[in-house]
Amino acid sequence: MDLVFFGIQGSGKGTQAKRLVEEFGYYMFEAGGELRKIKASGTELGNTVARYIDNGELVPFDIIMQVVKEAVAAVPADQQILFDGIPRDEDQKKAFDEILSAAGREFTCLHMLLSKDEAVERIKGRAEIEGRVDDADQEKVLRRMELFEEKTKPVIAEYAAQGIVVEVDGNGSVDEIYERIKTALHL
Ligand code: ADP
Predict the structure, then answer these.
(1) pTM
(2) From its phi and psi, is residue 12 left (phi > 0), alpha (psi between -120 and 50) or beta?
């Protein structure tokens, strides 16, 4: 079963995802990471992607969905995938659901809960460590959080209505949260 990981910027989703990958061998699909690779390629597509990422806006639908399609096609059917950063809005959800269903893949969603105030505090520290342009600019971080609230939360709500969302409290130490996740997912 694949895993679709949701959480506001700064919720600690990336840290927890890495641990799950190490312990359970998921193939990691990180939407932002894939897009940053394209940005770094220096191609025309890379420059287009950069304009969105650096401003904290969603990269156009066709670009991100092409990346997802290619990644899913490249992963063997018996290898579980952990998706981080996709789908982020209703259109992406529709396309994502179709891609996964066409590939015969099933998934559970995990939503890491953290207040926006706490998330803002955490991100301030992260910008200095990882050197990300979009994390260093407070205004861009707030814009991404706004997009999460406005566009991604309704997606999570739809999956929740389908009964496939597990919620985990994102407050506490990395170890505590990881244990919570494993318990919640029966891992
Ligand atoms: P965060 O979740 O903290 O915003 P990510 O690394 O997941 O960080 O994403 C960084 C940026 O990459 C986003 O602000 C956006 O520009 C782009 N991006 C990531 N995922 C998507 C997506 N599913 N659709 C469109 N753009 C995306």
Answers:
(1) 0.95
(2) left
